[in-house]
Design brief:
Elements: E1 5-10, E2 15-22, E3 25-33, H1 43-65, E4 74-80, H2 84-101, E5 105-109, H3 110-121, E6 128-132, E7 137-143, E8 146-152, H4 158-168, H5 175-183, E9 196-197, E10 200-201, H6 204-215, H7 221-247, E11 251-255, H8 262-274, E12 278-280, H9 284-287, H10 291-301
Parallel strand pairs: 1-4, 4-5, 6-11, 11-12
Antiparallel strand pairs: 1-2, 2-3, 6-7, 7-8, 9-10
The structure holds adenosine-5'-triphosphate and fe (ii) ion.
Protein backbone atom coordinates (compact mmCIF):
# COMPACT_ATOMS: atom_id res chain seq x y z
CA UNK A 1 0.00 0.00 0.00
CA UNK A 2 2.86 2.30 -0.82
CA UNK A 3 0.77 5.14 -2.17
CA UNK A 4 -0.93 5.85 1.13
CA UNK A 5 -0.09 9.17 2.73
CA UNK A 6 1.56 7.84 5.86
CA UNK A 7 2.56 9.61 9.05
CA UNK A 8 5.49 7.79 10.67
CA UNK A 9 6.29 8.15 14.36
CA UNK A 10 9.72 7.29 15.76
CA UNK A 11 10.17 7.17 19.54
CA UNK A 12 12.46 4.25 20.44
CA UNK A 13 15.08 6.31 22.26
CA UNK A 14 16.10 9.95 22.55
CA UNK A 15 14.51 11.15 19.29
CA UNK A 16 10.82 11.87 18.81
CA UNK A 17 10.48 12.07 15.04
CA UNK A 18 7.53 12.47 12.71
CA UNK A 19 7.81 11.92 8.98
CA UNK A 20 5.12 12.16 6.34
CA UNK A 21 5.59 10.11 3.19
CA UNK A 22 3.71 9.22 0.05
CA UNK A 23 5.18 6.21 -1.67
CA UNK A 24 8.92 6.70 -1.44
CA UNK A 25 8.54 10.47 -1.49
CA UNK A 26 9.31 12.20 1.81
CA UNK A 27 6.99 15.18 2.28
CA UNK A 28 8.23 16.07 5.78
CA UNK A 29 10.70 14.76 8.32
CA UNK A 30 10.77 16.63 11.63
CA UNK A 31 12.36 15.59 14.90
CA UNK A 32 13.10 16.75 18.39
CA UNK A 33 15.80 15.02 20.40
CA UNK A 34 16.35 14.76 24.13
CA UNK A 35 19.95 15.57 24.98
CA UNK A 36 21.95 15.58 28.20
CA UNK A 37 25.24 17.21 29.13
CA UNK A 38 26.80 13.92 30.16
CA UNK A 39 25.22 11.75 27.49
CA UNK A 40 23.66 8.97 29.52
CA UNK A 41 20.01 8.60 28.57
CA UNK A 42 17.54 8.38 31.45
CA UNK A 43 14.50 6.62 29.93
CA UNK A 44 11.89 8.39 32.09
CA UNK A 45 13.37 11.80 31.28
CA UNK A 46 13.52 11.05 27.56
CA UNK A 47 9.87 9.95 27.75
CA UNK A 48 8.94 13.19 29.54
CA UNK A 49 10.68 15.09 26.76
CA UNK A 50 8.67 13.20 24.13
CA UNK A 51 5.41 13.78 26.04
CA UNK A 52 6.13 17.46 26.09
CA UNK A 53 6.88 17.80 22.38
CA UNK A 54 4.96 15.11 20.49
CA UNK A 55 1.97 17.29 19.57
CA UNK A 56 4.25 20.05 18.37
CA UNK A 57 6.38 17.70 16.25
CA UNK A 58 3.26 16.20 14.65
CA UNK A 59 1.85 19.61 13.83
CA UNK A 60 5.22 20.86 12.51
CA UNK A 61 5.45 17.83 10.21
CA UNK A 62 1.93 18.43 8.87
CA UNK A 63 2.81 22.07 8.27
CA UNK A 64 6.02 21.12 6.46
CA UNK A 65 4.08 18.68 4.25
CA UNK A 66 1.35 21.30 3.73
CA UNK A 67 -1.26 18.76 4.79
CA UNK A 68 -4.07 18.49 7.30
CA UNK A 69 -4.40 15.52 9.65
CA UNK A 70 -7.53 14.58 7.66
CA UNK A 71 -5.28 13.89 4.63
CA UNK A 72 -3.40 11.15 6.49
CA UNK A 73 -4.33 7.61 5.39
CA UNK A 74 -2.17 5.61 7.78
CA UNK A 75 -0.16 6.02 10.96
CA UNK A 76 2.97 3.92 11.32
CA UNK A 77 4.78 3.90 14.67
CA UNK A 78 7.96 2.19 15.85
CA UNK A 79 6.83 -0.52 18.26
CA UNK A 80 10.38 -1.59 19.16
CA UNK A 81 13.08 -2.45 19.96
CA UNK A 82 13.66 0.43 22.32
CA UNK A 83 13.08 1.95 25.72
CA UNK A 84 9.63 1.14 27.09
CA UNK A 85 8.78 4.62 28.44
CA UNK A 86 9.80 6.27 25.15
CA UNK A 87 7.96 3.74 23.00
CA UNK A 88 4.83 4.36 25.06
CA UNK A 89 4.73 8.01 23.95
CA UNK A 90 4.73 6.99 20.28
CA UNK A 91 1.97 4.54 21.09
CA UNK A 92 -0.02 7.23 22.91
CA UNK A 93 0.26 9.60 19.95
CA UNK A 94 -0.90 6.83 17.61
CA UNK A 95 -3.83 5.94 19.88
CA UNK A 96 -4.97 9.55 20.10
CA UNK A 97 -4.88 10.09 16.34
CA UNK A 98 -6.56 6.76 15.71
CA UNK A 99 -9.37 7.43 18.18
CA UNK A 100 -9.99 11.03 17.23
CA UNK A 101 -9.64 10.80 13.44
CA UNK A 102 -10.25 7.08 12.83
CA UNK A 103 -6.92 6.72 11.02
CA UNK A 104 -5.73 3.10 10.75
CA UNK A 105 -2.31 2.23 12.17
CA UNK A 106 0.52 -0.29 12.01
CA UNK A 107 3.54 -0.86 14.28
CA UNK A 108 6.98 -1.54 12.74
CA UNK A 109 10.41 -2.71 13.81
CA UNK A 110 12.95 0.11 14.12
CA UNK A 111 15.95 -1.85 12.78
CA UNK A 112 14.02 -3.08 9.74
CA UNK A 113 13.00 0.55 9.10
CA UNK A 114 16.68 1.55 8.78
CA UNK A 115 16.98 -1.04 6.01
CA UNK A 116 13.72 -0.18 4.25
CA UNK A 117 14.33 3.57 4.12
CA UNK A 118 17.72 2.95 2.52
CA UNK A 119 16.13 0.76 -0.13
CA UNK A 120 13.44 3.37 -0.74
CA UNK A 121 15.74 6.35 -1.26
CA UNK A 122 18.77 4.74 -2.93
CA UNK A 123 18.99 2.34 -5.84
CA UNK A 124 19.82 -0.57 -3.52
CA UNK A 125 17.63 -3.59 -4.30
CA UNK A 126 18.70 -6.38 -2.03
CA UNK A 127 21.48 -5.05 0.19
CA UNK A 128 23.27 -6.11 3.33
CA UNK A 129 22.70 -3.34 5.86
CA UNK A 130 25.46 -2.22 8.20
CA UNK A 131 23.44 -0.55 10.93
CA UNK A 132 25.71 1.25 13.38
CA UNK A 133 24.05 3.66 15.78
CA UNK A 134 24.43 4.59 19.42
CA UNK A 135 22.78 1.59 21.00
CA UNK A 136 22.66 -0.80 18.04
CA UNK A 137 25.24 -2.42 15.81
CA UNK A 138 23.99 -5.15 13.50
CA UNK A 139 24.63 -6.52 10.04
CA UNK A 140 21.18 -7.32 8.64
CA UNK A 141 19.89 -8.75 5.37
CA UNK A 142 16.63 -10.12 4.01
CA UNK A 143 17.38 -13.74 3.22
CA UNK A 144 15.30 -16.90 2.94
CA UNK A 145 12.02 -15.07 3.49
CA UNK A 146 12.94 -13.10 6.60
CA UNK A 147 15.19 -10.40 7.99
CA UNK A 148 18.25 -12.00 9.53
CA UNK A 149 21.03 -10.68 11.73
CA UNK A 150 24.32 -11.96 10.34
CA UNK A 151 26.53 -10.30 12.88
CA UNK A 152 26.24 -7.90 15.75
CA UNK A 153 28.03 -6.36 18.68
CA UNK A 154 28.49 -8.63 21.67
CA UNK A 155 28.61 -5.69 24.05
CA UNK A 156 27.98 -2.01 23.26
CA UNK A 157 26.87 -0.28 20.09
CA UNK A 158 29.57 1.45 18.02
CA UNK A 159 28.19 4.91 18.85
CA UNK A 160 28.08 4.23 22.57
CA UNK A 161 31.68 3.02 22.37
CA UNK A 162 32.76 6.20 20.54
CA UNK A 163 30.82 8.37 22.98
CA UNK A 164 32.32 6.54 26.00
CA UNK A 165 35.87 7.22 24.77
CA UNK A 166 34.90 10.78 23.84
CA UNK A 167 33.61 11.39 27.37
CA UNK A 168 36.75 9.85 28.88
CA UNK A 169 39.03 12.25 27.04
CA UNK A 170 36.78 15.24 27.76
CA UNK A 171 35.13 15.77 24.39
CA UNK A 172 31.57 15.94 25.79
CA UNK A 173 28.59 14.29 24.12
CA UNK A 174 28.20 13.05 21.46
CA UNK A 175 31.84 12.07 21.04
CA UNK A 176 31.53 10.43 17.60
CA UNK A 177 31.66 13.60 15.46
CA UNK A 178 34.50 15.11 17.56
CA UNK A 179 36.58 11.93 17.39
CA UNK A 180 36.08 12.06 13.63
CA UNK A 181 37.45 15.64 13.45
CA UNK A 182 40.51 14.73 15.53
CA UNK A 183 41.14 11.58 13.49
CA UNK A 184 41.31 13.65 10.30
CA UNK A 185 44.45 15.33 11.66
CA UNK A 186 46.45 12.10 11.86
CA UNK A 187 47.62 9.18 9.79
CA UNK A 188 49.83 7.60 12.42
CA UNK A 189 48.42 4.15 13.09
CA UNK A 190 48.84 2.60 16.53
CA UNK A 191 48.03 -1.10 16.74
CA UNK A 192 44.95 -1.75 18.91
CA UNK A 193 42.97 -4.87 19.90
CA UNK A 194 40.95 -6.02 16.90
CA UNK A 195 37.98 -7.99 18.08
CA UNK A 196 35.95 -9.95 15.54
CA UNK A 197 34.54 -13.17 16.95
CA UNK A 198 32.93 -15.27 14.27
CA UNK A 199 30.50 -12.83 12.70
CA UNK A 200 30.27 -10.62 15.77
CA UNK A 201 32.28 -7.67 17.04
CA UNK A 202 33.12 -6.44 20.52
CA UNK A 203 34.30 -3.03 21.66
CA UNK A 204 34.98 -3.35 25.40
CA UNK A 205 38.60 -4.52 25.09
CA UNK A 206 39.32 -1.79 22.55
CA UNK A 207 37.83 0.84 24.86
CA UNK A 208 39.89 -0.36 27.84
CA UNK A 209 43.10 -0.30 25.79
CA UNK A 210 42.37 3.17 24.43
CA UNK A 211 41.79 4.50 27.95
CA UNK A 212 45.11 2.99 29.10
CA UNK A 213 47.02 4.50 26.18
CA UNK A 214 45.37 7.87 26.78
CA UNK A 215 46.27 7.74 30.51
CA UNK A 216 49.89 6.87 29.70
CA UNK A 217 50.18 10.30 27.99
CA UNK A 218 52.60 8.77 25.49
CA UNK A 219 50.30 9.19 22.50
CA UNK A 220 48.76 12.12 20.72
CA UNK A 221 45.01 12.15 21.06
CA UNK A 222 44.69 12.64 17.27
CA UNK A 223 46.64 9.41 16.71
CA UNK A 224 44.44 7.53 19.18
CA UNK A 225 41.26 8.77 17.47
CA UNK A 226 42.63 7.90 14.04
CA UNK A 227 43.66 4.39 15.11
CA UNK A 228 40.37 3.86 16.93
CA UNK A 229 38.39 4.63 13.77
CA UNK A 230 40.61 2.53 11.49
CA UNK A 231 40.34 -0.45 13.86
CA UNK A 232 36.66 -0.26 14.82
CA UNK A 233 35.44 0.43 11.28
CA UNK A 234 37.62 -2.35 9.82
CA UNK A 235 35.95 -4.73 12.27
CA UNK A 236 32.49 -3.61 11.12
CA UNK A 237 33.42 -3.94 7.47
CA UNK A 238 35.04 -7.35 7.86
CA UNK A 239 31.75 -8.71 9.20
CA UNK A 240 29.72 -6.84 6.56
CA UNK A 241 31.89 -8.14 3.75
CA UNK A 242 31.60 -11.70 5.01
CA UNK A 243 27.81 -11.35 5.21
CA UNK A 244 27.81 -10.11 1.60
CA UNK A 245 29.89 -13.09 0.50
CA UNK A 246 27.77 -15.54 2.48
CA UNK A 247 24.47 -14.26 1.03
CA UNK A 248 25.96 -13.71 -2.39
CA UNK A 249 24.87 -10.07 -2.38
CA UNK A 250 26.89 -7.29 -3.92
CA UNK A 251 25.19 -4.31 -2.31
CA UNK A 252 26.06 -2.70 1.01
CA UNK A 253 23.74 -0.16 2.60
CA UNK A 254 24.69 2.03 5.55
CA UNK A 255 22.36 3.07 8.36
CA UNK A 256 22.55 4.52 11.89
CA UNK A 257 24.14 7.71 13.23
CA UNK A 258 27.70 6.36 13.12
CA UNK A 259 27.33 6.01 9.35
CA UNK A 260 27.40 9.84 9.20
CA UNK A 261 31.17 9.38 9.69
CA UNK A 262 33.10 10.31 6.54
CA UNK A 263 35.86 7.78 7.14
CA UNK A 264 33.37 4.92 7.60
CA UNK A 265 31.63 5.98 4.38
CA UNK A 266 34.97 6.02 2.55
CA UNK A 267 36.08 2.63 3.92
CA UNK A 268 32.70 1.13 2.97
CA UNK A 269 33.08 2.41 -0.58
CA UNK A 270 36.61 0.99 -0.84
CA UNK A 271 35.50 -2.42 0.43
CA UNK A 272 32.62 -2.53 -2.05
CA UNK A 273 34.67 -1.41 -5.03
CA UNK A 274 37.33 -4.04 -4.25
CA UNK A 275 34.73 -6.78 -4.57
CA UNK A 276 32.89 -5.23 -7.51
CA UNK A 277 30.03 -4.36 -5.24
CA UNK A 278 28.03 -1.19 -4.74
CA UNK A 279 27.80 0.94 -1.64
CA UNK A 280 24.64 2.93 -0.92
CA UNK A 281 24.56 5.73 1.64
CA UNK A 282 21.35 7.69 2.31
CA UNK A 283 21.48 11.34 3.35
CA UNK A 284 22.62 11.87 6.97
CA UNK A 285 19.08 12.93 7.97
CA UNK A 286 17.88 9.43 7.05
CA UNK A 287 20.82 7.61 8.68
CA UNK A 288 19.90 8.86 12.15
CA UNK A 289 16.60 7.95 13.81
CA UNK A 290 13.73 9.67 12.00
CA UNK A 291 10.00 9.39 11.39
CA UNK A 292 10.16 9.08 7.59
CA UNK A 293 11.81 5.65 7.81
CA UNK A 294 8.98 4.45 10.04
CA UNK A 295 6.38 5.84 7.59
CA UNK A 296 8.01 4.20 4.57
CA UNK A 297 8.22 0.82 6.31
CA UNK A 298 4.64 0.92 7.63
CA UNK A 299 3.25 1.83 4.21
CA UNK A 300 5.13 -1.07 2.65
CA UNK A 301 3.80 -3.70 5.06
CA UNK A 302 0.30 -2.40 5.81
CA UNK A 303 -2.53 -4.75 4.95
CA UNK A 304 -6.01 -3.16 5.27
CA UNK A 305 -7.59 -6.58 5.86
CA UNK A 306 -5.45 -7.30 8.87
CA UNK A 307 -6.34 -6.26 12.41
CA UNK A 308 -3.34 -4.68 14.20
CA UNK A 309 -2.88 -4.45 17.95
CA UNK A 310 -1.87 -1.22 19.64
CA UNK A 311 1.17 -2.47 21.53
CA UNK A 312 4.87 -1.93 22.09
CA UNK A 313 7.55 -4.60 21.68
CA UNK A 314 10.61 -3.24 23.51
CA UNK A 315 12.67 -6.40 22.96
CA UNK A 316 11.61 -7.42 19.46
CA UNK A 317 14.53 -8.93 17.57
CA UNK A 318 15.09 -8.25 13.88
CA UNK A 319 14.78 -12.00 13.19
CA UNK A 320 11.35 -12.11 14.86
CA UNK A 321 9.71 -9.67 12.45
CA UNK A 322 6.76 -11.33 10.73
CA UNK A 323 6.67 -11.14 6.95
CA UNK A 324 3.32 -11.38 5.25
P1 LIG B 1 19.42 3.81 18.08
O1 LIG B 1 18.28 3.93 19.06
O2 LIG B 1 19.00 3.42 16.73
O3 LIG B 1 20.58 3.03 18.61
P2 LIG B 1 20.72 6.27 18.67
O4 LIG B 1 19.79 7.37 18.96
O5 LIG B 1 21.45 5.66 19.79
O6 LIG B 1 19.91 5.25 17.83
P3 LIG B 1 21.71 7.52 16.30
O7 LIG B 1 20.88 8.76 16.46
O8 LIG B 1 21.45 6.65 15.11
O9 LIG B 1 21.77 6.64 17.59
O10 LIG B 1 23.24 7.91 16.29
C1 LIG B 1 23.86 8.54 17.38
C2 LIG B 1 25.31 8.06 17.45
O11 LIG B 1 25.97 8.38 16.22
C3 LIG B 1 26.09 8.72 18.55
O12 LIG B 1 26.71 7.70 19.30
C4 LIG B 1 27.11 9.60 17.83
O13 LIG B 1 28.34 9.71 18.48
C5 LIG B 1 27.26 8.88 16.52
N1 LIG B 1 27.68 9.77 15.44
C6 LIG B 1 27.02 10.82 14.90
N2 LIG B 1 27.76 11.44 13.96
C7 LIG B 1 28.93 10.74 13.89
C8 LIG B 1 30.14 10.87 13.14
N3 LIG B 1 30.29 11.83 12.23
N4 LIG B 1 31.10 9.97 13.35
C9 LIG B 1 30.95 8.98 14.24
N5 LIG B 1 29.87 8.82 15.00
C10 LIG B 1 28.88 9.70 14.85
FE1 LIG C 1 18.20 3.72 15.01
Amino acid sequence: MVNLITLGIESTAHTFGVGIVKGNKILANVKKSYTTESGGIIPMQAAKHHERYYKQVISDALKEAKLDIKNIDLISYSHGPGLGPCLRVGLLATKELHEEFKIPFIGVNHCVAHLEVGKAVTKAKNPVLLYASGANTQVIAFEGGKYRVFGETLDQGTGNFLDAFGRYIGLGFPGGPKISKLAEKSNNFISLPYSVKGMDVSFTGLLTKLKQLYDSKEYKVEDLCYSLQETAFAMLLEVSERAMAHCDKNELLLGGGVACNTRLKKMSEIMCSERDGKCFIPDNSLLVDNGAMIGITGAKFYNPNKKYKLEIRPYERTDDVEIK
